[in-house]
Design goal:
The protein is 70% helix and 0% strand. The protein is mainly α. The chain has a domain of 90 residues.
């Protein structure tokens, strides 16, 4: 008669789904890494442009007795302030968007006339969003 029953756990049964979720997590890490890298390069380019524009002022400060380390500290502080303000604005903006995502998507669908997640095609008909500050992974 042979074996009629086979024992499978949920990880074996959903191996493809778990692989896809793991791949999505890795791809999102790479995308976020590049976004942060681009932001860092933008801050660096802004600081370089500020130094180039302020060469006369830097020369005056040096003539008045300022050390190079003091002048460097000014631009480092400026970079830290720009980075901190950008991080704060980005976090607040991201939270506002995630909290109002359904309204935003609904408004875009009404304006463009395009339904993003039609229920007859996808398993979900709306984009759920939940912010959990304790999630670190």
């Amino acid at each position: 008669m042979g074996m009629r029953y086979v024992a499978e756990d949920w990880m074996q049964r959903n191996r493809n789904l778990l692989f896809a979720l793991g791949m999505e997590k890795k791809v999102m890490f790479v995308i976020l890494f590049f976004i942060v890298g681009v932001a860092a390069l933008l801050i660096i380019s802004i600081l370089v442009m500020m130094v180039m524009e302020k060469q006369k002022d830097i020369a005056i400060l040096k003539a008045m007795g300022a050390r190079s380390s003091q002048i460097l500290r000014i631009f480092v502080y400026q970079g830290l302030i720009i980075g901190a303000v950008g991080t704060f604005v980005g976090c607040v903006g991201g939270l506002l968007i995630s909290w109002n995502l359904e309204r935003i998507v609904g408004w875009i669908e009404r304006v463009t006339g395009v339904r993003f997640l039609p229920g007859d095609v996808y398993y979900i008909s709306e984009l759920p969003s939940r912010v959990n500050p304790l999630t670190w992974r």
